[in-house]
Design a protein that fits this description.
By secondary structure, the chain is α/β, with parallel strands linked by helices. Among the domains are: about 240 residues, P-loop containing nucleotide triphosphate hydrolases (Rossmann fold, 3-Layer(aba) Sandwich), CATH 3.40.50.300; about 210 residues, no CATH class. The chain is about 60% helix and about 10% strand. The protein is built from 21 helices and eleven strands. Helix 11 links the parallel strand 10 and strand 11. Helix 1 runs antiparallel to helix 2, helix 16 runs antiparallel to helix 17 and helix 18 packs antiparallel against helix 20. The longest helix is centred in the C-terminal third of the chain and has 61 residues.
Length: about 650
């Protein structure tokens, strides 16, 4: 199965899963088994399945054949190059190719001057007026080519302007932009490009991220701190005719590689191997030379040789366009595509499967427990009423007193429940105070003030490092609050299970480790790109402060936003089962009491009531079976193992009268 087929299959898999989850949501609502919190959780799952994206980033210095590789892998079906691919620089700004249903085919270009503001690219995406928008002729290769060529546009700028926009300037051109004879430098016209058109792969949720070379890539911190680290796959492209140059090595170490050994979804592409096809070497010699280059690249980058893929993007594109299977195979492009799909899709699919199953099975478990509680209560009523056949009024009165006593006992237990609810609310407020956005805003404000008040670089360094220390302290306090909430709820769940027979499983644990790891990653990037002597000494205080808050503080805010969303969802999830079962048990006691009252008033209603309960029992058994079928359908849609079907619903015991 080729890459296009793999992505199409993944898209169908997500659609099937969304359909199965949608059926569960409708069933829970129709049968009045779910609640508002559960419905919100299912809607979140559906949104995630429908809007799921897979980002593949291409990173290289200029003239490594990056755009040609994108053309060969994704857009050969147009019969021509779509992204501009020629000698020299063709991609001057980060470029995203994507499509979401409802979008218009267009190219959106963000002017480079927006770097002078403190707004991030992600923030500016919410303001269409900041972008230059051009329509795209999505059905015309020539129209696409003409429009997409704009991502390579440049303009001249003074050294002062270039530096103010975040570009490094170096007279030698080795570590920055080289001034021309006119004393100016060439900078990109655009800060970011969004290209939207309905290509089959983009429709399936693929996002292609094309990046500029070293001098441009380092000037856009959001690219290096967010877009690249969060990409599901990163292809780092080298040229076989140049090997690993110093600038290649700088891009690899600074922006791609994060640790030793091979990482999932991080592949190195050795492009332009067709340069060895000079007609003078035999295939054995060519293969030997390619093997030596692969070994050299792997040793230089300190990675496994199996992570390096020699290809000819140009020949692969020609082979695809002309239907030349032999040339395509010789280009070795299919081997790279297989590695890409082996690394990218299964990993992504596993993440989506696990998160979807975790949520749906938790909700199915709650709904099943609720139905079984109803069934158990109904059978208890049925047993009580059956036992009343032929009994006198005094026995019926005794039964009424017994149920009233149970009701009084339960209501006494409710006082403890309400007390726990009050403590839970206080602990929740404390937790959200540590993780809340107000707390982060206060930390950000304090750090900004400390940086602006600093006279020396040490003060700047201390203020920025203190920002990370305080955020970690907040996570530590949050962990303590979560542990206290979990312990308290476990005790309450156990009490109601033992004293009143409620079917409750202990609440699931919640960990802040994921967000702490993201903070660690952010701090490493900060130490590498900002917190070093050269940057601290050579960067003006206000410029450094602005850079810190445009990059580090912005990413920290996103991490806290994610933590807030997840912890709020967890808090709703851990209280919902207890609240639902308490309400259900109250309702059952009320129904039992009313049923016996009616029989006390008119004994001829006994048989009618027994028959009603038997019919209700049959309906509950059917609902439990339907719910199991819906849960199985979700597992089938997700390609997850299907557990053996439970049998013993019919054998659920009623509580002893």
């Amino acid at each position: 199965m080729n890459l296009v087929d793999q992505f199409s299959a993944y898209g169908r898999w997500r659609a099937d899963a969304a359909e199965a989850v949608g059926r569960l949501r409708s069933w829970l609502s129709r049968n009045e088994v779910g609640d508002a919190q559960g419905d919100m959780r299912l809607q979140y799952i559906l949104d995630r399945l429908r809007e799921d994206k897979l980002t593949v980033a291409f990173v290289a210095e200029f003239s490594r054949g990056k755009s040609e590789l994108i053309n060969a892998i994704f857009f050969a079906d147009y019969g021509d190059r779509i992204l501009p691919s020629s000698a020299g620089r063709t991609t001057m700004c980060p470029t995203e190719l994507k499509w979401t249903p409802g979008d218009n085919p267009e190219i959106r270009l963000l002017p480079i001057a927006t770097r002078a503001t403190q707004a991030s690219v992600s923030e500016l995406k919410r303001f269409p007026e900041e972008w230059e928008v051009l329509p795209l002729a999505a059905d015309s290769a020539a129209g696409l080519q003409q429009a997409l060529s704009r991502v390579g546009e440049t303009r001249r700028a003074s050294l002062e302007e270039a530096r103010s926009l975040g570009f490094k300037v170096d007279p030698s051109g080795e570590t920055g932009l080289k001034p021309g004879a006119d004393g100016q430098v060439e900078i990109p016209s655009w800060r970011h490009a969004l290209i939207q058109f309905p290509h089959p792969l983009l429709e399936q949720g693929l996002v292609v991220l094309d990046t500029p070379g070293l001098n441009a890539i380092g000037a856009e911190p959001e690219l290096t701190l967010s877009l690249l680290p969060n990409a599901h796959a990163v292809l780092f492209i080298l040229a076989a005719d140049t090997g690993v140059t110093q600038s290649d090595l700088a891009v690899w170490r600074e922006y791609v590689h994060a640790g030793q050994g091979r990482q999932k979804g991080r592949l190195v592409v050795l492009n332009k191997i067709d340069g060895l096809w000079d007609g003078l070497r035999g295939e054995t010699q060519i293969d030997g030379e390619i093997s030596r280059q692969v070994a050299s690249v792997a040793d230089t980058l300190e990675i496994e040789r199996t992570a390096v893929f020699p290809v000819s993007a140009q020949k692969g594109l020609v082979g695809r366009v002309n239907g030349d299977a032999a040339l395509l195979e010789r280009s070795r492009l299919p081997a790279l595509e297989r590695a890409l799909t082996d690394d990218l899709l299964p990993t992504k699919q596993e993440i989506v499967r696990d998160s979807t199953l975790g949520e749906t099975e938790d909700l199915v478990g709650q709904a099943t427990a609720l139905l079984e509680a109803r069934l158990s209560g109904l059978r208890e009523q049925l047993q009580e009423l059956t036992d009343l056949r032929g009994k006198n009024q005094s026995v019926i009165e005794y039964m009424m007193r017994k149920i009233r006593a149970e009701k009084d006992e339960f209501e006494q237990g409710l006082q403890k429940y309400y007390a726990v609810r009050s403590v839970f609310t206080n602990l929740t407020n404390n937790l959200l105070a540590h993780l809340g956005m107000d707390t982060l805003r206060d930390e950000t404000r304090r750090t900004r003030e400390a940086m602006l008040e600093s006279t020396f670089s040490k003060g700047l360094k201390d203020a920025m490092e203190g920002f990370f220390d305080r955020l970690r302290a907040n996570f530590k306090l949050s962990t303590d609050e979560i542990a206290e909430i979990t312990t308290m709820l476990e005790a309450m769940y156990k009490r109601f299970s033992v004293e009143h027979g409620l079917k409750l499983t202990p609440p699931e644990a919640f960990s802040t480790l994921r967000y702490e790891r993201e903070l660690d990653r952010l701090e490493k990037a900060f130490n590498r790109q900002i917190n070093n002597t050269l940057v601290l000494v050579t960067t003006e205080k206000h410029a450094l402060t602005q850079k810190f808050f445009e990059t580090v503080a912005l990413q920290a805010r996103r991490t806290f936003e994610l933590a807030n969303r997840d912890v709020e969802q967890w808090l709703r999830a851990v209280m919902s089962p207890l609240e639902t079962q308490v309400r259900e048990y109250q309702l059952q006691l009320k129904r039992r009491l009313e049923s016996v009252k009616r029989i006390h008033q008119a004994t001829d209603t006994l048989e009618d009531r027994v028959e009603e309960l038997k019919q209700a029992e049959g309906q509950l058994l059917r609902q439990i079976e339907e719910l199991e079928g819906l849960a199985t359908a979700i597992r089938v849609a997700l390609d997850a193992p299907v557990e053996e079907r439970r049998e013993a619903v019919e054998d659920l015991p009623g509580k002893a009268a």
